[in-house]
């Protein structure tokens, strides 16, 4: 009964496909809800603005004795000038070196304000080639930043954890980081929590946004809410372009302001990118919990075996552990990535890793601990045979460095 139950659960829809479809459905519902809210909030204002504009247009045409077709033709020319970057008030040159540097920065970071666009055919063709490599390199930079910020947070949180253990008397006062750590039971298998990392990154992102908003309010003359709105739109690379910093012809302490603007945008994008990836793991944990609720309930044996599991992995919901003891060097292949990850005690994707290379689980369990203690992470020779064995992208980086989040933590 248990075997048939498991086959029904995995075929034709396995856990990965089920999670993907569930996330797609939730995103569709989220988009629909957002569209409903924004339509209710903004549609009346848009209709009122359109009504005021039509009234103004007709009054101008009547007072100055200008026909509506001629007036509309003039306004179309004005809109074309606006699109080309021409304004009534003097603005900074769009295509001098600082302006072009600002433009390419918004291109490779995928912010794309849209206030400056190439007008020549050669410029548009060059942008396609330039953006292809520039965006790829910038995404790699964001991933490397994420890897290092997570390693730094792991090191700091490890030090705080050791200090707490010393105060509670669970750690000897003369304890030093090193090989002796393996003999201390309180530190064996310790990993930083996803939720703690998310909290730290969230606090840092809020602090950075508040400081940047104060600068934009003072220099650009925006109100503080508009400055916060600009910071989120820019740091998250949404880049609507309705508010764009550093566009006036001159500023007081202009060089210092441009440098500060560049640093805030760079740090803000890196920080929000890292925060988004941590939040994505938490969202995936919620999906795992939902899928767990939808698991097959017809087989009592499934529930009994699931009840024995003391920890829950943050990436994949419950798969039954084998009842017999498993050696540290696992020779068998797992039918899902959950079993390997639970045995190793960390959120590392094991599907490719263990199925093809038979990697030692003991070595994998040390990886984040070594990162937290400043050790070089030794990669098993077999893992180098498969370039995708540890996963791809920012989510794999998070899996390699954070602990599993569980109900028992």
* Secondary-structure arrangement, i.e. CATH architecture of one domain: Orthogonal Bundle
DSSP helix fraction:
55-70%
Rg calc: 28 Å
Order of helices and strands: HHHHHHHHHHHHH
Membrane topology: Multi-pass membrane protein
Catalytic activity: K(+)(in) = K(+)(out)
GO molecular function: metal ion binding; outward rectifier potassium channel activity; potassium ion leak channel activity
Protein name: KCNKC protein
Describe the structure.
The protein is mostly helical and 409 residues long. Among the domains are: 13-88, no CATH class; 145-169 and 192-298, Helix Hairpins. The chain contains 13 helices and no strands. It has helices spanning 2-10, 15-63, 68-83, 97-108, 121-167, 194-220, 224-235, 254-293, 300-307, 337-344, 351-357, 361-372, 394-401. The chain is globular, with a radius of gyration of 28 Å.
Write a brief caption for the model.
One of its GO terms (molecular function) is metal ion binding. By secondary structure, the protein is mostly helical. 62% of the residues lie in helices and 0% in strands.
List keywords for this structure.
0% strand, voltage-gated channel, mainly alpha, transmembrane, 409 residues, 62% helix
Structural topology:
Blueprint: H1 2-10, H2 15-63, H3 68-83, H4 97-108, H5 121-167, H6 194-220, H7 224-235, H8 254-293, H9 300-307, H10 337-344, H11 351-357, H12 361-372, H13 394-401
Helix pairs in contact: 2-8, 5-8, 5-12, 5-13, 6-7, 6-8
């Amino acid at each position: 009964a248990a075997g048939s139950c498991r086959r029904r659960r995995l075929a034709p829809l396995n856990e990965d496909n089920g999670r993907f479809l569930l996330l797609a459905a939730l995103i569709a519902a989220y988009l629909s809800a957002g569209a409903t809210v924004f339509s209710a909030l903004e549609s009346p204002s848009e209709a009122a603005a359109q009504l005021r504009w039509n009234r103004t247009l007709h009054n101008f045409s009547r007072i100055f004795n200008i026909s509506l077709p001629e007036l509309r033709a003039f306004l179309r020319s004005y809109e074309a000038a606006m699109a080309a970057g021409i304004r009534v008030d003097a603005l900074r040159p769009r295509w001098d070196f600082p302006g072009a540097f600002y433009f390419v920065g918004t291109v490779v970071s995928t912010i794309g304000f849209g206030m400056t666009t190439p007008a020549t055919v050669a410029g548009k063709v060059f942008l396609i080639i330039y953006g292809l490599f520039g965006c790829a390199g910038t995404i790699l930079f964001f991933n490397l930043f994420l890897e290092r910020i997570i390693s730094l947070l792991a090191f700091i949180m490890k030090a705080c954890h050791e200090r707490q253990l010393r105060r509670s008397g669970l750690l000897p006062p003369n304890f030093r980081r090193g090989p002796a750590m393996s003999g201390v039971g309180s530190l064996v298998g310790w990993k930083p929590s996803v939720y703690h990392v998310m909290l730290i990154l969230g606090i840092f992102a809020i602090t950075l946004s508040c400081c940047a908003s104060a600068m934009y309010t003072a220099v650009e003359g925006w109100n503080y809410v508009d400055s916060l709105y600009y910071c989120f739109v820019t740091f998250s690379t949404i880049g609507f372009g309705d508010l764009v910093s550093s566009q006036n012809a001159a500023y007081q302490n202009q060089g210092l302001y441009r440098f500060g603007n560049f640093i805030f945008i760079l740090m803000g994008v890196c920080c929000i990118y890292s925060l988004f990836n941590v939040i994505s793991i938490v969202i995936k944990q919620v999906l795992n919990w939902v899928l767990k609720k939808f698991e097959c309930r017809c087989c009592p044996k499934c529930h009994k075996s699931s009840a024995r599991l003391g920890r829950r992995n943050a990436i994949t919901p419950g798969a039954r552990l084998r009842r017999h003891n498993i050696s540290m060097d696992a020779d068998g292949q797992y039918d899902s990535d959950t079993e390997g990850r639970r045995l190793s005690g960390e959120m590392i994707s094991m599907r490719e890793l263990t199925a093809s290379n038979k990697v030692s689980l003991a070595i994998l369990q040390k990886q984040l601990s070594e990162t937290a203690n400043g050790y070089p992470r030794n990669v098993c020779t077999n893992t180098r045979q498969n370039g995708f064995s540890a996963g791809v992208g920012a989510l794999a980086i998070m899996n390699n460095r954070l602990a599993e989040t569980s109900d028992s933590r």
